[in-house]
Amino acid sequence: MSGEMAVATAAQKWPGTGLKILVAYPPGGVSDLVARALAKEMSDQLKVPVIVENRSGASGTLALELLQRSPPDGQTLVFTAAAAVGLVRNAAARRATTPGAAAPLPVQPVAGVMRTPLLLVGTSALESSAFADMIEEARKHPGMLRWATTGEGTTGHTVLQRVSQHAGVRITHVPYKGGGQQLTDALGGHFELLSTNVAPSQLAALREGRFKALAVGAPRRLPVLPEVPTLAELGYPSANLDSLFGLFVPRGTPANVVALLNESIEQALRSPSIRNRLLDANNQPYEGSAQDFALQVERETDR
Fold this sequence. Notes:
With 303 residues, this protein is α/β, with parallel strands linked by helices. It has eleven helices and eleven strands. It has helices spanning 3-13, 30-46, 61-68, 82-95, 131-140, 155-167, 179-187, 200-207, 255-269, 272-280, 290-302, and strands at residues 19-23, 50-54, 76-81, 107-116, 118-122, 146-149, 172-175, 193-196, 212-217, 243-250, 284-285. The strands form two sheets. A six-stranded mixed beta sheet has the order 2-1-3-10-4-11, sandwiched between helices. The two termini are 35 Å apart. The model is unreliable at 1-12 (pLDDT under 50).
């Protein structure tokens, strides 16, 4: 079935009067902008209103907890990173009556949207200008370097833990609820290290000399930062992580509804406006099938 025919079928068979996308992050960030662009495309295709609500907090898990309490009818989706799904899954495993039992995914994956590279920078508070020098500084002054992330269990936090473990150093974690205040404080030099997205504000701060690029988490060096090595190149392959983002619905949502949503999202991602928006923000559009995405989410949550 062609994409156009699939979307036409989806519009004819869509079982409700509208959709709601809960974005697990604050307004104004890349995730929010991408979700809103997707909502417009999906609304045009399915011929129903698609509303976007920002429900940030708890490292992206607040929106997922709201989703779990929503009816499994496909009318409510969450746009979030797979790492947040892992946090909810791990919390369920800890509450399980059978210790060590593998908890199922708490939500149903629908479609992948993008992979976002991680950027590790030093702020004006950091004396070092290179990753190796930063590690040596952390070794000499245990716990004195502060590394800010968007919260416990996020990709940035996992990278911090793996770098610290591999290097045998202690770095203090500074968790934030979102990227806005985190970036403001980073520009003010309130801490030494920041794991963040490769977004226009961050790139501008690098050009102005307000940030020092130390490393990226990505399969290969980024065209926009060709001189910045990946964490794998620096000898930290286990910390060389990016973030997988996608859309999810409650468990138990009928398979035909999930399939219709998947077709609509995949068609939206083929739109030049959304694809260009992702690439301009240095994100890689997700190009796998629904089955591939579900497998990737399993792997991401396992880590």
